[in-house]
Design goal:
glutathione transferase activity, Thioredoxin-like_sf, 55% helix, EC 2.5.1.18, Glutathione S-transferase Yfyf (Class Pi), Chain A, domain 2, 2 domains
């Protein structure tokens, strides 16, 4: 069977979590690193949305038929449905996956706009930076409370929810590193540092040559 193709951008949080799931699922893909100002025509033909990640999978027994997965959470679910040795999907719990997907989706819908406002306010030294950060803290407090109840975001064991939220919380922590180090979220810091120091994170964040520079096949996973 043809190896799936993943179009990716190194520091995009959505692409990062797709790569994390592929890594944790022990899946092998051909990774095509892109730049947003020079997108490959092959990617745009597969997905008109023009953003990453995009995963192109040959349909089983139909080599010329392709399945295109355009949303990062869907890429994660596809990868882990192939292989999930660490039970990140919590398949032993009947309602765990829909609950996690709902929590992840609500977090994205609410936190990411607040995060983007805070990031812009900090970058451009706007007067409302503290108010923007406080809007984000509502969600940080909720996560801190979850981590007070158990070691990981969803339960005592690691799950899909952890690696789905990780790239966004990493990006938030980098906006004002000094503030985050002193912030009243010790559980969240410990959780984040656990991942940032992991082999998974090092592997997922390896820099790859841009595919359009030489059209070289680079394997990931």
């Amino acid at each position: 069977m043809a190896i799936p193709i993943l179009y990716s951008l190194q520091n995009c949080p959505y692409a990062m979590r797709a790569r994390m799931a592929i890594f944790r699922a022990n899946q092998s893909v051909l990774i095509r690193a892109i730049k947003l100002d020079n997108k490959p025509q092959a990617m745009l033909l597969a997905s008109a949305k023009g953003s990453v990640p995009v995963l192109v999978v040959a349909t089983e027994n139909k080599p010329r038929s392709m399945m295109v997965i355009e949303e990062s959470l869907e890429v994660m679910l596809w990868a882990l449905s192939q292989r999930d040795e660490d039970n990140l999907l919590r398949t032993d719990e009947a309602d765990a996956l829909p609950i996690m997907v709902s929590l992840i989706t609500h977090f994205e819908y609410d936190f990411i706009p607040a995060f983007n406002a805070y990031s812009c306010a900090k970058r451009y030294h706007e007067d409302n930076v503290i108010e923007c950060r406080q809007a984000c803290e509502v969600y940080l407090q909720a996560l801190e409370e979850r981590l007070t109840r158990h070691t990981f975001m969803y339960a005592e064991q690691e799950s899909l929810m952890d690696i789905a939220l990780l790239p966004f919380l990493r990006k938030f922590a980098r906006i004002d590193k000094q503030w985050f180090r002193q912030s009243p979220y010790p559980k969240l810091r410990t959780w984040l540092n656990h991942y940032l120091q992991s082999r998974m994170f090092s592997k997922v964040m390896e820099k790859h040559e841009l595919w359009l520079d030489n059209y070289k096949d680079i394997y990931f996973g």
